[in-house]
Structure formats: C-alpha cells, structure tokens
Amino acid sequence: MVCLCKSSYLFKDLQPSRLSAPHFSSLWAFIFQKYKEPEKSVRVEEIDGVKVVKNLAVKMEEMFRKKAEATRRLVEAAEEAHHQHEENPDLQYEYFNAVLINEVDEEGNNVELGGEFILEPNDHFNNLSVNLSLSVVQVPTNMYNKDPDIVNGVYWSEALNKVFVENFERDPTLIWQYFGSAKGFFRQYPGVKWHPDEHGVIGFDCRNRKWYIQAATSPKDVVILVDVSGSMKGLRLTIARQTVSSILDTLGDDDFFNIIAYNQEIHYVEPCLNGTLVRADRTNKDHFREHLDKLFAKGIGLLGEALTEAFTILSDFNQTGHGSLCSQAIMLVTDGATKMYDDVFEKYNWPERKVRIFPYLIGRESAFADNLKWMACANKGYFSQISTLADVQENVMRYLHVMSRPKVIDHEHDTVWTEAYVDSALTHAHKLNEKSGPSLTTTVAMPVFSTKNETKNQGILLGVVGTDIPLQELMKLIPKHMLGIHGYAFAITNNGYILTHPDLRPLYQEGQKRRKASYSSVDLSEVEWEDKDDILRNAMVNRRTGTFSMEVKRTVDRGRRVLKMHNDYYYTDIKGTPFSVGVALSRGHGKYFFRGNVSTDAGLRDLEQPDVALADEWTYCNTEEKHEHRHLSQIQAIKLFMTGRKSHFKCDRELIQEVLFDAVVTAPLKNYWNSLALNKSENPDKGVEIAFLGTRTGLSRTKQFVPTDQLSNQDFLTAEDKEGVFNADHFPLWYKRAAEQVPGTFVYSIPFSTALENKSVVLASTAIQLLDDRKSPIVAAVGLQMKLEYFQRKFWTACRQCTALDGKCSISCDTEDINCYLIDNNGFILVTEEQSQTGLFFGEVEGAVMNKLLQMGCFKRITLYDYQALCREYAGSSDSARTLSDPFSMVKWLLTELVIFLLEFNLYSWWNVDLSVRAQRSRGKTMMVPCDTEYPAFVSERTIKETTGNIECDGCIRSFVIQQIPSSNLFMVVVDNKCDCSRIPPVTMDPIEIIYNESLKCDRLKLQKDRKKPESCHPFHPEENAMECGSASRLSSHLAVNLLPLVAATISR
C-alpha cells in the first residue's frame, strides 16, 4: 500500500500564490473587487434569444440585398451592351488576358493579349495586387484566345468595367465581381494576374462552377444511360466514363440523378439505388464515380429497355414528391442506335415531351448519328458527337444552354445563392496564406440573356454574372457579446447544408490549403448530432421561426475536451435568400448579460491605453462601408463616433458603452502589473511570462514580463492561435474553460496547439462572476502563461518537502517504487518524471489505473461522434487509373494512332482531365477519405476529493492514490509501480471508424432528408425552338494548328 502525507500540503505550492508570486495570488480577488465596486449601478438582464436572431436575420438580409442589387446592375448593363452589339466574325480586338498581362517575350516586348497592366497591392483583396479600374479576361486552356465568338463577347462585355467600378464605389464591402460567358471566357473585377499550376495548366472553366450552373438552369432530375455493350471497349469506354463524370460535374445540390449501364441487361451502377434518384451532392457524385471504374464492355446493347427503365424511374420518383419537381432529362452515352425507338417515346414522353433527351455519340463513326440526332430533336434535347477526350467538356456543356432556354424565353432573372465553397479561381490568382488557408464564400448569381427580338425563341443564354460574399463578412454581423461565452450563430441552406457554423471543418487540418472533398455539403445534423430526430434542422430548412432546446456535448481544444451544457436554439429565415439563421444560447450564465455605465471621457481615456486591444473580428463600428474609413482601427472609430466627429458611423452603441465600462473597471490592472514587473523578487527567473485578461465585450489587457522574442509560445494571444483569442464565432479557450469552473478556482492546461510544437508552457485562468448565482454572467477571465519547466519545478519542490514535515511520510515522489503524476480534469498529464509523457492522456501511460478510475466513478467516459472525420484508406493501383494517370505515356500511345487524331487531340484538356482524375486516386498510397467516427472524452467527477484504489495484476496488488488539488482542476495521482500491469491495455482517445454494413450503407444512400426546393422552375416553354438540337463537333482549325508545336514539345520530353 502507498502511504503518503496529505496531498493538500504537498500542493500548497501549486496554488496561484505559490505558482507565480504572492501578488498574483490576489489577481482574481483584485479584478473581482473592481467589478463589485460599481455593483449598485449595474443591472443583470436576460438575453432575449428571439429578438437577437430576428435582428441578426434583418442585418444579414440587408447585406445580401446590397450584393444582389449590385449583381442586377451587372445583368442590366450586360444585356444592354449585347443588344447594341453586332456580331463581327472578323473583329480584331486586343484585351487584357488574365494569364498574359505583364508578360514579355525574349526581346522584352509585351506578348500578344498581354500589355502593361498596372497592379497594386490591396488589403481588401487578401493583399493581392489588383487593378481597381479594369477587369481581366480568362480563357480556358482548351479554347482559342482569338476565337471570333470569344473576341466578340469580350468586346461587348467591356461595358461591364464601368459598372464594376461603380458597384465597388457604392459598396466598398464588395469583393470579386465577374461575368462568366456561355462561350467560356471569364471576366473578373478587379483585374488580377492568374498563374498556372505546377503543371503549367489553368483548368478553370466558369461554366462548370456551381454559381453558373444554378443560375443558368432550373433544378433537374437526370438519368444517365451508359452503353456497355461489346462495341464500347477500349478508348470508347474511357471517353464514356469521362463524359459521365463531366455530366456529374454539371449537377448541383438542387438536382437528383442516377446512372444505369446497359447491354443485354439493365445494370444500376449502384445496385442499392435500383429504381430511385439521389441528390447530386459531392458525396453521392464521388460515390458513383468510384463505381464507373468498375464498368466493362461486353454483349449487345438493348437501348429500348434502358430508355423504358429511365422513363419509369423519372415518372415514379416524381410522384413521390421528392426530387427537383422541375426539369427532367435522360443523358444517353453510346456509340450508336440501330433505330429511333419512337414507340418508346410515344408511350412515355409524347405529346408533352416533359423529358428531354441528350444523346452523346462516342467515337468517329457517324452511321448512327441520324438516329440519335432525331431522338434529341423529337424530345427537345441536343445531340453531340464526342470523338476524343478533348471533346468531352465542351460538348457536355451544350446541354446547359438547352435546359436554360425556357428561363431565357420567360426572361426570369432568378437570383441564386450557392452553398459555402472555396472558389478555385482565386488559387490561380495567388498563393493562399499558408496559415489561414482558403476562406469560405457564398456567391449571388443571375443569368444574362440575349434580348434581341430575332433570337427570342432560341432562348440564348449569354452567361451568368456573380458577386462573392466571404462568410467572414457574414460573421462580422454576429453580436457575439450577446451570445455569451458558449453561444454561437449559424446559418444553413435550403438543403440543410451548413453555410456557417463554428463546428464546420472544411480543411484536412487547420491551416492547410487542402479542402475536404465533402466540405461544402456538411449537413446541420452532422454537427448538431444530438438532435436525433432532425427537429431543429427540418424547422430551419422549411424556413420556420421558432425555438428548440436540447442537452449538448461541445468539444473544445481540438476535440480533446468536452463541455456538457443545455442549449436553447432560436431560428428564423433570411428573407430574399434560401438561407435560415439560428443562434444557440447556453443555459445558466450564458443567457444573462450585465450592463454598466461610465462617462464617455473616462471610457475613451482608458480604452486608448497601450495594453488594451479589442477583438479583431468583432464589429464595434462598421469601417468597411466607406473607402476612406478602412484604415481606421476599431478603437479609433469608436472615439470618432462617441465624440460626435463621425456620428454617421454605423456603430453598436450598446456594445461600445459596455466596452468603455470594462475599460474603466479594468484600468487599475495596468499599474498593478507594472508594479509586479518592477519588483524583480516576485518573478526572479521569469517563469511567469504573460498575464492577461479578457472581458465579455471582447476587450483584452496583457502584460508581458519577458521580451517577445523570449516568450516560450510567441503565438499565444495572437491571430496565429485561433482558439486562444476572441474570434467571430467563439470566445478564447482559456475563457471558455474557466467559465465552467467554480469562480475563483484556476484552470491549468498545456495548450495542445503548442505541445505538439514543443513550445512548453502552462496556462492558468480563472473566471470573474459578478454574483454567486448561476444566473450571474461571467464578466471576465484572467490568467497567466508560465514556462512548463517553471511550473514543474514548483511541483517537484513541493513533493520533496513532504518527507521533512513530521516524519510520518515514509516515501516521496523521489522514491523509485512510485510514480507521481499531475493530471488535469480531462486526464491529461502536466507533470511526470518522464518528460516525453507530458501532454499525453493519462490512460495511455497508466491504462490499468485509468480503467480503475473509470470503474470507481472518479472519471467519466463521454462518447462523442464526428461526422466530418477523415480515415486512411489504401488506394491500390488499377488498369483504369494507370491509363489516366500519366499524360505523357498517353501521348506516346496516341502517336501510334492516326495523325488526324493528334490534330484533333487537345493536350491541355487531356492533361486537365488527368489532374482531376489524379485528385481522386493515389496509386499505391494511403489517402484520406470521408468517414464517420466515434471517440471518447473524459471528465473528472468534481465531488470526489480523494480516494485510493487497488488493482490486481497476475496475483500482485498495485495501489494508487488520487487527490484533487484545492481551488484547481488538477489531481495528484501516486501509483505503486512494483507490479507489472502491462497486460491491461491502455485507455486511449483514438477515434474508431463507424463501419456500416451493406444494408445500412444502402439506407444512408437512399435517405431523403427534408429540403426546401427552389421556388423558381422553368422546365419548358411553348415558344421554344426545339429544332436547335445539335450536330457533331470538331475543334477549330486555329486550335488544331496551335496544338502541333505543343504535341511536339511534349513528345520531346
């Protein structure tokens, strides 16, 4: 048995008074007293969640409305400019090509379509060098820069430059504005230089961006039929696969689809989805792409049965009330049809012709072209012939123009809003900040139509205009001070996908550029997973206003710690958009706010002190609305507003009044900390590095006791430490954790973000609560950052004093037969004799003891779920992957084919296809794939102050003692190490992948969650010219000639 002296004596030096200095022991009392002094003049108020969410919705509605108005002005200007323009096939026009600007040839002259283009850095555009007077034009690599259609389009769309500039002058919060042409070019403002990727390629084509597709067409249900008869072997099947993949690229979250392969039998590519359609989200499309590789060609093709199956699915699914309930189409990918199958069309599609037919003839032969074209013309579709992989994308895009005809003829400029996404256009314009990573954006877009009378019944879509809205701007509208320490705001789309939520994790790891494949289609139910019946989700999807309540488990510190609380949710719709917004308030101190009042002069005086900072991402005053105000800091803007010099500023007077109150109340801290800094005896070895304070209004004060370059963790309290500062969606971690402890007790921890980088520090923080009542708000938190080595030295010094006390203690932590640990309330080790174990979970080091502590109820295991997880999967090589993985080997193979094939082959397009394929596969390597995981977190039982336990290990009894350290979240654990208990497995926090059996996988695929379909629908129009139904395509002679040197250069490698 272990016999130790009382740990309360051992740890008297671990109280704040001993860990830092005697004066720091009164830090909490000092701040508490300062907030108590004006107690009679302050009042505590309960937060009205309904009022908060409605006010937030109004602010968001106003911001979205301004962006939509700017977009509408672009539509009007574009349509007027096109109406005035006469097409000229011989037009010669020099424009600023985004890739070629400021490029020079070997002689130092500007290259064609380049020219000198003035660029200046601008912090509003991520510090990119931009031109605020002009736009630039990007042309896809597989298109000819001087194609007459492109030159004419670029010429008339120059009229947009004036409107771009005027929009930005009206609303300085605007960022990127653009026009995506149906011809393929992309006009972007402000002008910025684009850079190819490491392969020299720019694969961006505006026409397959979601904002373009959603604005151009109505929601649709699509069945894709793929011919896998024997004649489709080899290159034809490869082209067919890529054609199907490109069709999937054109489907969005409001569309539904299925893929059927046919020969003499009908084969659903995903057998589980027999007879139904699924939403075209990223996850489902990627799932089907994986199955495409499993297709092989054999037998004969019975197209009649396949068409019958497709019509039946579309009809039956439509009757269920699910799906788009709008347009319907059948995409037919085949190398021929021996007849026209008019009997099938007559039975299922005539005379209404509600289902459009889009045949894609694969290969060079034209023997069956007439039959397939007849099918398209007879069913309001479009026929295309695809001879090479280079032809795929351009030919697939043609169907979008047909689907847009009814909308164009109706002249309905539907406003569409995308889900949250990262625009790949920006990755070509600059290298994103390595640490911040890409930022999420939503886009408002509208279609642009030809208004010329002679083309009215043709329904000509000119393109789509759009404006980006960074979600960071949306988050600036959130009144974080009203939501409390654990409260937050969130928004979702009509499909239930998250637009913004503090638990959305779009990147593989924080700070990395790489996005998760399904980052833009994370459902609200995957983060608010305690709502098992989707009550909150469905109410918001259906745009209701209401409230909801539930117990939740919120993880902090990168998912390693858990806080249990009860949340009240308030939600409503954002008018004029497909979005809904909600706020979550935690019960208890999270639903209360207190208001104080001080004179403006006193508040401003104390606010302007050098040790004071305000939350960067909180909006006290809106300095974004005027260009001349952008340089102002929030403190400068507050001063101008409160002194009346800028009374027209849009400022939150209520928040400002409270931040001035906090500035006055906490002002004495400056002198307090300065006196400690001057007293060298209080911190002789500079073990305490920083003292800090934060208030519920986002005000912070800091005092460094060592120079910045000597700090053990220089990221702390900077933007680099995202969890450690006030952000738009959360309070600092040290504030959150302190709030859940008894006020006046300190929370100690080793930050995980720093432990991994060997920046050895310990943080200690405590909360300031105004009243001794659960309803009293947490008004502030104070804390210290100290060196880990300093903290541990204090610990060991205290332990060694034990044996010298009165002789009753026979052993100490220096004794070889025992191991001493200092762990926190979540089981993480702060101090141990083995330095490598610092920061580890106690169960990984002492599995037997941790198991016993769980059995005894000293710690509780809490099961958590992660529906945004990534799991490692081995990606083996395959013939199909190998075929598409090396563009140079493919070029060599092509040399054995006909010369005409080389002339028609667009190497850049092929290369671009290859890159998209390689992004999905990694031969012979592990890759990260989306998965669901279950993992544990551990929390100590507060009521247990001290206990002992015994563990039997193969006949040997191992003893241990655990005692809570008063006024802290720490526990001393002393373990007898005489017995070998290694056979008892460790207790880990490793996540376990949730494996779904085939039946559950199928059920999950079939699951049709509630969604609110878009209000606008334009499936067909009686005036539509259905005879514009397609022809076989060929690359232009210009492009073929330009490809010859490119092919030769590639072969030479």
From TrEMBL:
Q: What is its main location?
A: membrane
Name the species this protein comes from.
Kryptolebias marmoratus (Mangrove killifish)
Ranges of residues in domain VWFA: 221-403
Tell me the protein family, please.
Belongs to the calcium channel subunit alpha-2/delta family.
Q: Which domain of life is it from?
A: Eukaryota
Q: Which PROSITE patterns match?
A: VWFA
Q: How does it sit in the membrane?
A: Single-pass type I membrane protein
Q: Which GO terms describe its cellular component?
A: voltage-gated calcium channel complex
Q: Where in the cell is it found?
A: Membrane
GO MF annotation list: metal ion binding; voltage-gated calcium channel activity
The protein's matches in SUPFAM superfamilies, at most eight in alphabetical order, are given as: vWA-like (SSF53300)
Coiled coil (UniProt feature):
53-88
What name goes with this protein? Calcium channel, voltage dependent, alpha2/delta subunit 3
Q: Which UniProt keywords apply?
A: Calcium, Calcium channel, Calcium transport, Coiled coil, Disulfide bond, Glycoprotein, Ion channel, Ion transport, Membrane, Metal-binding, Signal, Transmembrane, Transmembrane helix, Transport, Voltage-gated channel
Name the InterPro entries for this protein. Ca_channel_alpha-2/delta (IPR051173), VDCC_a2/dsu (IPR013680), VWA_N (IPR013608), VWF_A (IPR002035), vWFA_dom_sf (IPR036465)
UniProt record, GO biological process: habituation
